[in-house]
């Protein structure tokens, strides 16, 4: 790796010398799958890949534990549910993250589920229900 790129990664990402990061990564892989260490000893690109993989794995743990020194490195894994939530909150007061609280989100999810469930029950009994009832939009709830 070119010197300036290596310096930047050590200073801004790893927060330690690459050799130190490799020593910790090596110890981990030595106990888990020594063949990875053997390969990394022969292939410097694989060694770098294992160190970066270690960084990514740790970034999730830093987020979970709330490690303050690694706040800029937090990685929060999410799936389709996060996308669905963001789509649901689009153009509502919950679109702005500063308006999101556990209480407001929980109340909106519960209220929305209750409204849609009631509408579905009415529909099942033959009561004409407008389709707009089935798309509950988040709103401030006390």
Automatic annotation (TrEMBL):
Classification via InterPro entries: FabD-like_helical_ins
All copies of domain [Acyl-carrier-protein] S-malonyltransferase-like inserted helical, residue ranges: 2-74
Origin: domain of life: Bacteria
Protein name (Swiss-Prot/TrEMBL): [Acyl-carrier-protein] S-malonyltransferase-like inserted helical domain-containing protein
Originating organism: Streptomyces xiangluensis
